Amino acid sequence: MSGAFATTQGNCSSFKFDTPHSCEKSPVIADLTPDALPENRTADCCHGGILAAWAIDPSMSFSSFEMMVGHLGANPNVQAPLNLTLMAPGPGYTCGLVADTDPTISSDIGGRRQLQAYRTWKSTCTYSSFVANQAPVCCVSLSTFYNSKITSCPTCSCGCREAEESTGSCIREGYPAPQSDSLDSDDIVLCTDHMCPVTVHWHVMKNYVTHWKVKLTVSNYNYRRNYSNWNVLAQHPGFSQNATAFSFNSTMLPSFGFSDEVALFWGIDYYNNDLLNADKDQLGAVSTQILLKKDSNSFTLKNGWALPRRIYFNGENCQMPLPDTFPMLPNGSSNLKPAHTLLLFLIYLTFKTVVTRL
What we know:
- The chain is mainly beta.
- It has helices spanning 129-132, 343-357, and strands at 4-6, 29-31, 93-95, 99-101, 105-108, 113-116, 120-122, 125-127, 138-144, 147-151, 169-171, 188-190, 198-207, 211-220, 227-228, 231-235, 243-245, 249-253, 262-266, 274-275, 284-293, 310-313, 316-317.
- 5% of the residues lie in helices and 28% in strands.
- The protein is elongated, with a radius of gyration of 25 Å.
- It is found in: Cell membrane.
């Protein structure tokens, strides 16, 4: 093999010479780390098992490895794999049948010659939060500038608190180890009514004449886990207009199958791409302000329109509060009068802050 390795060699006692890399009939194949030796590498290999989202880093969104299969006996016909399971790094992916497809074409001699594979098969694997986790792993809380009420995460969003009120830390049961920097499988979190390792808070900050502003905060309640290269996906019709995130990277995604626009946010390298674990004094947290242009035909503060429709953290569907608990406009109020005089001043301060940080 090159570009990856089989986790067990199996029983290769029948081979006297040229002992195979693995004699398992159903080997578990793992990716090599980026520091793999040149003789063990292939093109596009060795990401340490981490694949980035295509929208975040296309060059890191795919991986490959090569293996030579021998000992085929008298019938050397090439057969498709009988079964394929994708572990990334735990359960959650369900792979379809391995089906024939057009042979893969690769280039040689600097792209001047094309090489065609003998046969190519393809299987599509689909992720499901319900398969991956016995309980949700994140929840959403909401607040606005026009209502002092804070809508907290729903009680028991990610499991119910069994410890006494005075207990500071709780162990979440039935939660497989997620992709994180921790090697410990225990998930010890701050004891809360929602019992989620991660919360996403959406705060409607300001209503200007042509724009409106939101603060998005992601908090880590986990005492032992950091979340590196995290991402948050937010679904809201307001993202159909120009939006600027000041402290996160962001991009708009194609909204196939969604009635509302979808924005993807992730951290800035060497600044906030690591969501650190909580400690006894404070939560781990990252945040940004988002300035969105108004669509005069749809924008309103009524009926919770400015609040998100759905939030995902690292691909996991976060538990949303029920609509009847959303912070609403005060009785008798229509859309609050937009702020006029502070707009240019606030944008100037934000610009100066960014320039100073760079």
